[in-house]
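Lab manual, section 2.4: Encoding a predicted structure.

Procedure: take the sequence of the chain (64 residues), apply the prediction step described in section 2.3, and record the output as structure tokens. A sample record is shown.
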Amino acid sequence: MDISQNKQKIDASGKKVATLGNEYIRAKDEVSARRILVKMFSESSQQSLLLAEQIAQLDKNLKG
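Recorded output:
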């Protein structure tokens, strides 16, 4: 995957985490809040994978 494509996905993921954080703050009950937290953690995990891919690609580019 191209680094710029990866960056776009990481940026979109960051916005999604922020949106979920806002939903979490507005959650009316504990069950809803926990569901949103699960979504946030899932998105954070996905973001970590994207960052790892980006780091691997940058490392590959540096080594030639």
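Check your result against the sample. The chain has a mean pLDDT of 93.
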